[in-house]
Specification:
single chain, 5-stranded antiparallel β-sheet
Length: 512
């Protein structure tokens, strides 16, 4: 049954785990695509800025007398440091900026020669109606933007725009990054050659160890765009979701395992109870059959007139009476337990003194105890507080404990009975010197039908296994409790606690 229950659960758990992974992979894919779109958006924005520059410079080139156009462009773009022009006839001029160094134009010429293939490609693009820009290392570790522009004579010229790269990112690119990032993302621009964080959407930020997505700037290959979630990476989020899913599955499995374990214990207990009931029926049948057989035998002997002496007749009558009482006691015990367990037992509660009840039980049981050879010591407590109880029920509980002590005592036939007070309870205690009860079985002895079968006890001591169960039910009905103190070989001490009945005088004197 356990396998049948666990198999579908394990299959469902594996399925859910696989689904979680699939969902997380789908989320991760969608997220990566979104980040790639952000990278493209930043690059497209940068391209739009440079395209705007190239368009405005080409207009100036075609209408050089309109100096306001150039001044306005430079004023709006503080990152532009100088603008140079390489004309089709290989002459160079300064369009904007400080006075050039004496060898500046020769350096520009060397740059043209170095990137001649790229420039020819740019010219081809331009002639086909598409303008493209490239960035190259400039003078003094600066960055130059190169693009093709046509003058009024329809000749192709090369513009060099020397820019302050950090200022370009801060002034032109940073506002765009801030608007994209908002409250969800962090976007960084990092120089991969020096691993220096150039700008970030987060103020006072330091470089992140890991980004969810990286991409290169189209114009500036050494500059990387790093994007991640503000508080955690997508990997962290996916791992957290997986961990939460696994914890939930583990919790479900734990609950199922606990349920199966309790089911197993319940089934095991029911099987044990069935076994105990079977033994109970067997024991009771044997216990009832024995006195019935004796009664039948002695009555038959008397009816046949085989007994000639009056003494022998009286002896037979005594045996019949004794066995009848024994049979009646067993039947009454079973009926009493049935009423107690079903709640049909009616109790006649009254104010009682535990000392008086105990003394009456001992007076009634004195002949039986002496006949069995038992030495009974009674230690009543002085000024014992009254309790509210059913005298007959308490007496029955005491008799059951004394019967147990008689049954299980061997060499030392001694019973000690004590009464006393502990906190808000009075108690009566029955101590014997029998074989004792192991600790692991002490709670079981109060279960119905349970009998200790260690060694030869099952055969030497006859009973129904209801005595202590009846005691427990009676004490619970009086809102009390039963305790057992025992060690193997040292006998047993049963103590019955009953709540003290406090009077108004006790309450006023704070004697609780």
């Amino acid at each position: 049954m356990t396998v049948l229950l666990l198999f579908p659960v394990v299959i469902a758990t594996i399925y859910e785990y696989v689904k979680i992974n699939e969902n997380e992979e789908l989320i991760s894919t969608v997220y990566k695509e979104q980040l790639e779109t952000i990278v493209s958006s930043i690059n497209s924005y940068t391209l739009d800025i440079s395209d705007t520059w190239s368009t405005r410079l080409e207009l100036w080139l075609k209408y050089p007398t309109d100096s306001n156009r150039l001044k306005k462009m430079v004023a709006e773009n503080q990152s532009i440091k100088e603008i140079y022009l390489a004309k089709a006839n290989k002459t160079y001029s300064l369009v904007y900026g400080r006075s050039p160094h004496p060898d500046l134009f020769s350096k520009l010429d060397s740059i043209l020669n170095k990137y001649s293939k790229e420039i020819e490609q740019l010219k081809t693009y331009y002639q086909n109606g598409y303008r493209k820009l490239i960035s190259v290392p400039g003078l003094d570790d600066e960055t130059l933007l190169l693009f093709i522009a046509e003058d009024r004579d329809e000749k192709l010229n090369v513009f060099f725009v020397n820019i302050d790269l950090l200022a370009f990112f801060r002034n032109q690119v940073s506002p765009r990054i801030q608007s994209i990032a908002q409250e969800h993302f962090r976007i960084d621009l990092v120089d991969t050659t020096t691993n220096i964080l150039l700008i970030s959407s987060e103020p006072n930020a330091s470089p992140m160890e890991q980004y969810d997505q990286k991409g290169s700037m189209w114009f500036f290959p050494t500059i990387k765009i790093g994007i991640g979630l503000k508080n955690q990476s997508i990997a962290d989020m996916a791992n957290r979701r997986i961990r939460e899913g696994l914890r939930l599955m583990a919790l479900v499995l734990l609950v199922i395992f606990i349920g199966i374990w309790f089911l197993f214990l319940s089934v095991k207990r029911e099987i044990e109870l069935a076994r105990i009931k079977s033994e109970f029926i067997s024991n009771v049948s044997h216990e009832i059959r024995t006195p019935l057989a004796l009664i039948s035998m002695y009555i038959e002997t008397l009816e046949m007139g085989r007994i000639k002496t009056i003494e022998k007749v009286n002896e037979y009558y005594r045996i019949i009476g004794k066995e009848t009482q024994r049979l009646t006691g067993m039947v009454n015990k079973i009926l009493n337990f049935s009423r107690l367990e079903s709640g049909r037992q009616k109790f006649d509660f009254d104010t009682c003194n535990l000392n008086i009840i105990t003394q009456k039980v001992l007076d009634t049981y004195q002949f039986h105890l002496k006949n069995k050879g038992f030495d009974v010591k009674y230690f009543p407590a002085d000024r014992l507080k009254p309790i509210r109880c059913d005298r007959e029920a308490i007496a029955d509980a005491l008799i059951n404990l004394i019967d147990n002590a008689i049954k299980y005592s061997r060499d030392i036939k001694k019973i000690e009975i004590t009464t006393g007070t502990r906190k808000n309870y009075t108690f009566v205690e029955v101590k014997d010197h029998g074989p004792g009860i192991p600790k692991k079985k002490q709670k079981l002895v109060f279960d119905k039908f349970y009998r200790i079968t260690t060694g030869h006890l099952a055969h030497e001591v006859k009973g129904t296994g209801l005595g202590l169960a009846i005691v427990n039910e009676i004490v619970k009905a009086h809102k009390g409790k039963v305790t057992l103190t025992s060690k193997p070989g040292e006998g047993c001490t049963f103590r019955l606690y009953f709540p003290i009945l406090f009077t108004d005088k006790d309450l006023s004197n704070n004697n609780i």
